[in-house]
Amino acid sequence: MIRKAAGDLTTAKYVIALTGAGISVESGIPPFRGKDGIWEKIDPMEYAHIDAFMSDPGKVWDVLIRGMKDVVDQALPNDAHKGLARLEELGIIKTIITQNVDGLHQAAGSTDVIEFHGNFAWQSCLDCGRRCPTRTVEMDRLPPRCACGGILRPECVFFGEQIPPRHLSRSQLLAMQCDIMLVIGTSATVQPAATIPIISKQSGARVIEINTEPTPLTHSVSDYLIAGRAGEMMHRIVTEVERKKRQG
Ligand code: NAD
Ligand code: ZN
Questions:
Q1: Per annotation, catalytic residue among 81, 105, 117, 235
Q2: Which residue's alpha carbon is nearest to atom 31 within ligand 1?
Q3: Which burial class, exposed, middle or buried, applies to 97 when counting CB atoms under 10 A from its CB (0-12, 13-18, 19+)?
């Protein structure tokens, strides 16, 4: 399977990747669903819905955002993020569409990343709109506030909020144009991101999945699943791609 994927990637003309929380698990960031997922411990509608944030921002900061800040501040890109950046360097990957908000693709060196659900690196003030890096936010009083007194919110898309339309339309276009859609570490259950691989399939692309477990895409949309951890599998695939490239 590793060799097959490396062969497919080497001969492809236009590869796009769609990534989800699973690609950052080996960087120490827990996913939402599945084993050790955050949702096993807290109810998403109670904490990750925009209505929950607006009605009690202090509670959402305390239970969800504070914990995310602690792990995201520490996290470093793993072999999967680095492997995708290397595939861009080799001229194979054009764009990454990510559902993640952790910024690890850019940290690994990928230059064209569509952040479908925004990013966690920045906060903005609900009153004056001023922005500040999440890293610099003082956590001694929650919710944290801007100099103007307004409440800070992360620049992520909460449940109940819209995906920025320009991200959605560009992603759909890329999904139609690519000849391989590489789907890594996503449960493919959050809409509208989950339809991206389906668009690619319907447009004639090959869909390759890397995930520790099968997903709703596995037996219907994906051409094949590389079952395993994203970092480990990507490391092996990229090593094989480099070998093929050297051989010409
Ligand atoms: P998800 O939590 O629904 O699913 C995670 C998927 O990753 C599962 O299919 C699981 O089997 C797989 N997985 C777990 N460990 C893996 C590994 N080591 N290698 C490969 N696959 C692995 O994630 P999702 O589909 O991205 O959707 C959830 C939403 O959660 C997204 O919208 C995203 O915004 C948000 N989220 C982001 C982060 C982050 O930024 N790192 C973390 C948690 C949740
Ligand atoms: Zn302000």
A1: 117
A2: 99
A3: buried
Residue type, 37: G
Q: Which CATH number fits domain 32-74+120-156: 3.30.310.10, 3.30.1600.10, 3.50.50.60, 3.40.30.10?
A: 3.30.1600.10
Q: Looking at ligand 1, which atom is closest to the CA of residue 32?
A: 2
- Residue 36: the pLDDT is 67
pTM: 0.93
pLDDT of residue 70: 87
Type of residue at 221: V
Mutation test of ligand 1: which of 33, 155, 159 has the most ligand atoms closer than 8 Å to its C-beta?
Answer: 33
Pocket test for ligand 1, best of 212, 215, 217, 218 (most atoms within 8 A of CB): 212
Angle between helices 230-247 and 79-89 (to 10 degrees): 30
Q: Please tell me whether residue 55 adopts helix, strand or coil conformation.
A: helix
SS3 114: strand
- What single-letter amino acid sits at 90? L
